[in-house]
Each structure stands twice: as structure tokens, then as C-alpha cells.
């Protein structure tokens, strides 16, 4: 019974299988059997080999490759054996390993920093043939100033001898320092070993341990970083007959191992893949918590609990063949969540303890059908036995689309269930197809039409797979071309023009309809026309039945000219609602394209017309095809003739005017723009007339207010003059005159106040009537059409 242990990624390493010491046997290799290459620069690899009894498989790779290994390696024992474990040598980061030393050193430690870290150690300093022993006090830099205004900086070592003397030595090349303490010399040696190990070959060993009886097949799969496979196409345009398309895939084997009779698939898609540095041990920064001030506690007694207490469940998990299953996750789930979980041991045993109650008991292991026991009753104070058998899970189904002959497509559906064998999705090699019939005598390019492609095509969810029919052999560091498409296609020759080309000449193109029944991956395409090279271009991924323009050369026989003829903005509709008049305006522009064909045959011209933001095609124009940012028009250009295409653009806008601001000038402007005058007059003339009445009353009220202000000012002047009079006969006469004048002015002020009150009341009434009129104005008038320029 096969066992699924772990899933991971790694670059295809050298794989060897070694027998355990107590079971000698000859080693066997794990050959590459299946390769799937993806457009994201990763490849999926499958290996298959033979193991016997208890054997260990050693996989060698680098630390960078191990990052992928730890993510999704798949290991299966396809016989009645099992995988007992996977181990690898772990290497902590260099800075973490250096931090474990007693000396505070790092990768870039200098000689002076090294000596500084040895402070207090016993050393021997030899200078001028004299050796002095003592304890290192420290090392410092000292600068000496010379008479020539130059300075010299030297490192000075300080030493305390056994006699208590302080000795200093300038560290020059003639001075030698020796560490006398053995453990410190060993620590320095360990430091140098660690630093030197960073330059050694980065090799990591993973050991897969297997156990069982007799010979069995071992299956290993993974994904690896590989070069991206490329697609190239040849489009043949014969003088007679249907055009046909031939596609090739360019693949590279750079993984360091030969591919011999490998089942190869190429996937056109971009599954997500990433790099994560998980092969290095990771250390978290933990907080430092001080000890409590006291650790003494008062002894306590505790009461007994009511209820039945806790219970336990125990048993063994096996597969359908009777082999025990280690690594099975066992969970007890109650109404309040998980009550406990465990993992089966190497002998398949498990044990769980939980309070008495009702639970759901679940058994889960990758590659096996999960088991669940609903309403499991845990009895308090007792242990319940339960042995469980799990079945291997996994049924796959794939729809196969086979492209055998030009324009012919066959489909089939196959399904394989997981079991002891090795087939289908596990890496089986398909049977080779019958050889193609010998081609009849014909032109070289016509012979390509009847060549049989070596690839089957199938949909893989959002991806598309080209499965090579026959096993391939490709040595390491070699590349190859593999045929993937050979089928008839629908092609129409055209000349393509767009204003962004920057030339007065269009480009030759084909309107290619993908009639192969396959999804075509994006890539370069070479066009062969009349048994000769005609040009090359690029094609984006193309779904079955999709049509796409592909340009490949300049068309020197067609001349193009494009001119823009702007028009004046005009009002084409006026709306009034909720006290607002909305003027809808329209601006028109005409692009005139002129094409002349000097070729010996008529030409079909495709004009790509790009609309600026906010613009659209005027009514009555239907393009042959529309893209996200362009409209494509199809024009026939006879030989030696000139063809003209007018493309009309329109941009609509609008302005808003409150009806209260309407006046005669607005009516005149709208009427001049083509809005019917009678309807406009009927709707707006009462509003304008009411506004005129209100304006007259407002002017009358302003006049009365101005007169009252003038009288008040004159009364102030008269009163000031009256204060200056002294009582003479002449002054008395003048005083009487002033008194009469003030009386007349007071009478006039009373009249003005009455008239202002009356006028104000009339204004309030008229304004209310105007508001009612404005609310009642509602119309939609279309301006008379103007002659299209």
C-alpha cells in the first residue's frame, strides 16, 4: 500500500538509494519518468525506481533547492511497504551559529577586533626576540604627530604581566601574539571553521527511509525552477489549398540529469509559484521577563468535582491492506469547538482524552478518504477502543483533445483511480501512436500539412496542456524543438493601417481564425507565402475558434493618407425640469482615410480607428471588429484605384442654466441653434414677463428707499442749523421756515413708508408667482438637424 508522506519542490538532484547496514543490497537509481514544464519558469518532475526490503534513498541538493523541497515533495511506496521517515541535515544561519560562540565575532571581524574580544585572556607577545606573558588588558589606536606635519596611527596592545607590570606593544608585522589558553584557541578555531564553511560547496542531503518486504517501486515527484519553454509557429500560405499552421515548443534541460524516455507535457498557463526560505532554521525574538519578587505560595486544598469525569478513546488506524498508518490526524470536535487532537504514532496507534459528552470524531491523512464518526459518546472514567480503516482517495478525470491531421479533432475522456499501480496522473507513459503514412510527392511545404504532431492537447482547469505522445530523450544542458501543432487554419490576407504606425504605408497581416481546436500559446510566428519567407510577427495566446490579426511585413503597394476635419459644436437638445434648463451639445469630427492600391491584385484594407476618450462613432457606422481601444473598418481597394473612407466621431456634452436666469438673449441663442422658437417662447415667455414685472417693482422700491434716505439726511442738516440760531427777528423768521420745511418732510416720509410697504407686498406676491411659473416649466425640445460636414 502506497503512502503519501510529504509534498515539496526541488531542482532535480542526484538521487541514490542505499541499503540499510543490516540488509545489504545493490543500489538502484530513480530515473526521471515524467516532466511537465510551465510558463512561470517551474517544472514538475516525477521519478520512479526500485527499493528492496529496508532501504534509504539519499537525495543531494543545495540549500536553495531545499527551500522548494520542504514545500511539496511527494513520496509514494507503490508496494506493500511504507515510508518511515524523511530527514535532512539542518544548517542554522551563519550569524546564529556565530552568536553561539563565546567570542563576540562576526563574518567581517578584523585582527584588532579579534584581539579586543580576547580581553582578560592569557597571551604571549614576542617583540625584538623577547617574549612576554601576561593577561591582555586591551587594544587601542594611538596617533603620533611628526615634525613634518604628518601623523601615524598604530594599534597599541596593553598587557599586564604576572609580576603586575603594564607593558605596551605597537602591533607591527614584527610583533607576534600567541593565545596561551587552550579552550580559547579551540573557540577561535571553531570561529574560523564557521566562517570558512560559508565558502564550501552548498550540498544538503535528504534521506528517505523505506521499509517493507521484497522489491517495490518508489515514486518521487516535485517541482523545480527551470527555463521557460517557448512557442514558435510557421504559417504556410500555399498558392492552392488551405493554409495550415505548424507549432513547435523550444525546451531546455538544465537540471543536471539526462532525460531518457521521459513523458513530457507543456502547460500554457501561469500557476502561482514562489520562493520561501524555509530550509534555514528561523529564530524569533522572545521577550525577557523578570522573575517575580517572591515565589512562595500558601498551600491550598481542593474539593472534588461533580460529574462523571474524563474518558479516553484509543485504537489503531490501518489502510485497506492492513498496513498501519502513522501520521493520521485524529480530532475530537464538540459543540464549543475542538476538544482535542493527536497524530498516530509509527505503529498507527492513537489515544485521546476529553471530558464526557457527545463529539464528532475525525480521521484525516493526505491521499486518503477522511473518516468521520458523528455523535460519538465519550463515557467518563472509561477507555473506549476504536480501530479505523482508511481508503486511498483520489479519482482524476481529464478531457483529451487530439490534433492528428489538419483540421481534424478527436476527444476522449479518461479516468484513473488511485491504487497500487503507477499510471495516469501518477506518471504512466502513454502507448506510442501508429506511424504516419508515407507522404505523397508534393511541394516541401505541402508535406508539412500531413505530418503528424507529437502532442495531445487537453484542458487543465484554467490552463492548457500539450502532452507529447511519444517519450523523449534529452541530455542535460541540451535543448530541443518538439512539434505541438499541425493543422489547417482559416486565414484572410489583409493590409492593416493605424495612425500610430508612423508611416504612409500599411502593414501586411492575416486575419487568422484558430480552427485547430487547440489553445495556441503565445509566441513568434513565421509566415511562408509562395514557398518563400514573407515575414514574421508575434501572436498572443489564442483560444480555439478565436480570430486575431497578425502582422508580419510592410505593404509597399498601398499608400495611405488620413486627415481630420473638425466641426463646430452645436446644441441638439434642450431639456427643462426642476427649475433647470439643460443644454445637450454635440461636437462632430470626421476622419477621412484615402487609400491607393498599386499592387497587381486587389487589396483588403483594415483600418484601425482609435477613438479619443469621451468620443464615440456617430450613428450609422458599423465596424467589422471592435477592440478595447480601436474600431476596425474593412475596405476593399481595387488595383490602381483610390478608395475613401469617412469615419465620423461625436462627443456629447452639456451645460446647465437655472430657469430663473432665462432672458431674451438665451431664447435668441437657442432659437439660432435650431430649437423651435414657438415652443420655447410658450414655455419661457411668461417667466421672462414675470421677471420684468419684478424688476420694475424692485427699481420702484429702490427709488422710494433712496428718496427717504435723502430726506432723512436733509432733516439732519436743518436741525443742526436751527441749533445755531440766537433769537433775533431775522433768525425767528428763518426758524419758522425750517419748522415748516421739517413738517413737510415728515409728511413725505409717512407717504414713502406706505408706498414702500405696498411695493414690498407686491414683490412678495410676484416672486411667489414666479416660483410657481418656474416649477411648472418642463419641456424637451430637439434642435433642427444641421447639414453634416
Named CATH topology of the domain at 662-782 = Helix Hairpins
* Gyration radius, rounded: 48 Å
Quick one: biggest sheet?
10 strands, mixed
Secondary-structure content class: alpha+beta
Mean pLDDT: 78
Low-confidence region ranges: 1-28, 303-307, 394-444
CATH architecture of the domain at 662-782: Orthogonal Bundle
Fraction in helix: 10-25%
How far apart, in Å, are the first and last alpha carbons? 83 Å
Question: Shape from CA axes?
Answer: extended
Number of strands: 44
Care to describe what's here?
By secondary structure, the chain is an alpha+beta fold. Among the domains are: 108-180, SH3 type barrels, CATH 2.30.30.100; 312-381, Carboxypeptidase-like, regulatory domain (Immunoglobulin-like), CATH 2.60.40.1120; 557-659; 662-782, Helix Hairpins (Orthogonal Bundle), CATH 1.10.287. It is built from 8 helices and 44 strands.
Brief synopsis:
The chain contains eight helices and 44 strands.
Give the SSE layout.
Blueprint: E1 14-19, E2 31-38, E3 42-52, E4 55-61, H1 63-72, E5 74-77, E6 82-88, H2 94-99, H3 111-117, E7 122-127, E8 130-145, E9 151-161, E10 166-170, E11 176-179, H4 182-197, E12 204-211, E13 215-225, E14 230-237, E15 244-253, E16 259-268, E17 310-319, E18 329-334, E19 337-343, E20 349-355, E21 357-364, E22 371-378, E23 383-385, E24 388-390, E25 395-403, E26 409-417, H5 444-447, E27 455-460, E28 463-468, E29 472-474, E30 478-488, E31 490-498, E32 507-513, E33 523-529, E34 533-539, E35 547-554, E36 558-566, E37 570-577, E38 580-597, E39 603-609, E40 616-617, E41 625-626, E42 631-637, E43 642-658, H6 664-672, H7 677-724, H8 729-776, E44 779-782
Parallel strand pairs: 2-16, 14-33, 17-23, 17-24, 31-39
Antiparallel strand pairs: 1-4, 2-3, 3-13, 4-12, 5-13, 6-12, 7-8, 7-11, 8-9, 9-10, 14-15, 15-30, 16-28, 16-29, 17-20, 18-19, 18-21, 21-22, 25-26, 25-27, 27-28, 31-32, 32-35, 33-34, 36-38, 37-38, 37-44, 38-43, 39-42, 40-43, 41-42
Helix pairs in contact: 6-7, 7-8
Amino acid at each position: 500500500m502506497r503512502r503519501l508522506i510529504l509534498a515539496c519542490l526541488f531542482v532535480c538532484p542526484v538521487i541514490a538509494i542505499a541499503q540499510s547496514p543490516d540488509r545489504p543490497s545493490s543500489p538502484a537509481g530513480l530515473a526521471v519518468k515524467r516532466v511537465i514544464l510551465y510558463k512561470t519558469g517551474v517544472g514538475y518532475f516525477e521519478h520512479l525506481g526500485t527499493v528492496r526490503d529496508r532501504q534509504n534513498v539519499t537525495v543531494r541538493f543545495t540549500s536553495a533547492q531545499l527551500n522548494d523541497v520542504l514545500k511539496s515533495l511527494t513520496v509514494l511506496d507503490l508496494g506493500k511497504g511504507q515510508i518511515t521517515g524523511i530527514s535532512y541535515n539542518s544548517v542554522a544561519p551563519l550569524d546564529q551559529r556565530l552568536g553561539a560562540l563565546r567570542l563576540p565575532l562576526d563574518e567581517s571581524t578584523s585582527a584588532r577586533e579579534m584581539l579586543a574580544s580576547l580581553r582578560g585572556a592569557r597571551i604571549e607577545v614576542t617583540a625584538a626576540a623577547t617574549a612576554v606573558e601576561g593577561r591582555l588588558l586591551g587594544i587601542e589606536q594611538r596617533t603620533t604627530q611628526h615634525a613634518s606635519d604628518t601623523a601615524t596611527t598604530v594599534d597599541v596592545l596593553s598587557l599586564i604581566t604576572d609580576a603586575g607590570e603594564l607593558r605596551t606593544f605597537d602591533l607591527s608585522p614584527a610583533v607576534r601574539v600567541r593565545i596561551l589558553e587552550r579552550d580559547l584557541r579551540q573557540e577561535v578555531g571553531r570561529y574560523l571553521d564557521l566562517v570558512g564553511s560559508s565558502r564550501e560547496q552548498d550540498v544538503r542531503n535528504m534521506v528517505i527511509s523505506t521499509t517493507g518486504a521484497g522489491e517495490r517501486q518508489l515514486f518521487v515527484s516535485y517541482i523545480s525552477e527551470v527555463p521557460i519553454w517557448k512557442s514558435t509557429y510557421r504559417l504556410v500560405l500555399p498558392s492552392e489549398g488551405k493554409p495550415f499552421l505548424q507549432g513547435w515548443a523550444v525546451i531546455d534541460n538544465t537540471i543536471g540529469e539526462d532525460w531518457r524516455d521521459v513523458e513530457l507535457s507543456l502547460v500554457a498557463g501561469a500557476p502561482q509559484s514562489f520562493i520561501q526560505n524555509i530550509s534555514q532554521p528561523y529564530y524569533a525574538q522572545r521577550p525577557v521577563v523578570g522573575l517575580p519578587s517572591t515565589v512562595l505560595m500558601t498551600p491550598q486544598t481542593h474539593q472534588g468535582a461533580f460529574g462523571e469525569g474524563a474518558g479516553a478513546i484509543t485504537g489503531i488506524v490501518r489502510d485497506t491492506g492492513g498496513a498501519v498508518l502513522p501520521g493520521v490526524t485524529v480530532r475530537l470536535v464538540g459543540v464549543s469547538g475542538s476538544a482535542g487532537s493527536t497524530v498516530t504514532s509509527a505503529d498507527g496507534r492513537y489515544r485521546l482524552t476529553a471530558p464526557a459528552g457527545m463529539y464528532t470524531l475525525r480521521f484525516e491523512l493526505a491521499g486518503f478518504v477522511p473518516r468521520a464518526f458523528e455523535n460519538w459518546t465519550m463515557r467518563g472514567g472509561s477507555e473506549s477502543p476504536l480501530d479505523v480503516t482508511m481508503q486511498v482517495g483520489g479519482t482524476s478525470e481529464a478531457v483529451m483533445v487530439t490534433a492528428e491531421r489538419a483540421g481534424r479533432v478527436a476527444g476522449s475522456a479518461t479516468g484513473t483511480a488511485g491504487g497500487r499501480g503507477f499510471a495516469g496522473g501518477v506518471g504512466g507513459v502513454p502507448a506510442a501512436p501508429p506511424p504516419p503514412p508515407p507522404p505523397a510527392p508534393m511541394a516541401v511545404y505541402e508535406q508539412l500539412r500531413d505530418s503528424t504532431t507529437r502532442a495531445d492537447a487537453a484542458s487543465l482547469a484554467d490552463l492548457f496542456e500539450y502532452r507529447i505522445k511519444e517519450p523523449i530523450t534529452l541530455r542535460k544542458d541540451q535543448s530541443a524543438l518538439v512539434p505541438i501543432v499541425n493543422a489547417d487554419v482559416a486565414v484572410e490576407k489583409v493590409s492593416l493601417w493605424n495612425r500610430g504606425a508612423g508611416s504612409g504605408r500599411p502593414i501586411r497581416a492575416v486575419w487568422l481564425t484558430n480552427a485547430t481546436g487547440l489553445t495556441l500559446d503565445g509566441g513568434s510566428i513565421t509566415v511562408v507565402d509562395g514557398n518563400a519567407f514573407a515575414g514574421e510577427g508575434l501572436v498572443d495566446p489564442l483560444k480555439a475558434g478565436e480570430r486575431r490579426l497578425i502582422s508580419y511585413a510592410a505593404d509597399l503597394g498601398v499608400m495611405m493618407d488620413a486627415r481630420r476635419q473638425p466641426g463646430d459644436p452645436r446644441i441638439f437638445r434642450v431639456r427643462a425640469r426642476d427649475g433647470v434648463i439643460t443644454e445637450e451639445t454635440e461636437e462632430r469630427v470626421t476622419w477621412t482615410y484615402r487609400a491607393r492600391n498599386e499592387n497587381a491584385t486587389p487589396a483588403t484594407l483594415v483600418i484601425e480607428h482609435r477613438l479619443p476618450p469621451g468620443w464615440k462613432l456617430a450613428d450609422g457606422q458599423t465596424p467589422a471588429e471592435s477592440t478595447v481601444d480601436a474600431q476596425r473598418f474593412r475596405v476593399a481597394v481595387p488595383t490602381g484605384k483610390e478608395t475613401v473612407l469617412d469615419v465620423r466621431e461625436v462627443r456629447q456634452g452639456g451645460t446647465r442654466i437655472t430657469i430663473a436666469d432665462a432672458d431674451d438673449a438665451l431664447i435668441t441663442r437657442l432659437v439660432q441653434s435650431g430649437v423651435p422658437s414657438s415652443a420655447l417662447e410658450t414655455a419661457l415667455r411668461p417667466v421672462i414677463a414675470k421677471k420684468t414685472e419684478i424688476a420694475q417693482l424692485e427699481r420702484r422700491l429702490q427709488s422710494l428707499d433712496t428718496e427717504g434716505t435723502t430726506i432723512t439726511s436733509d432733516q439732519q442738516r436743518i436741525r443742526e442749523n436751527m441749533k445755531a440760531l440766537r433769537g433775533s427777528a431775522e433768525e425767528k423768521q428763518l426758524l419758522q421756515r425750517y419748522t415748516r420745511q421739517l413738517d413737510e418732510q415728515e409728511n413725505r416720509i409717512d407717504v414713502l413708508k406706505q408706498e414702500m410697504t405696498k411695493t414690498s407686498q407686491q414683490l412678495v406676491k410676484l416672486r411667489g408667482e414666479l416660483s410657481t411659473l418656474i416649477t411648472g416649466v418642463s419641456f424637451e425640445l430637439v434642435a433642427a438637424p444641421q447639414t453634416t460636414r
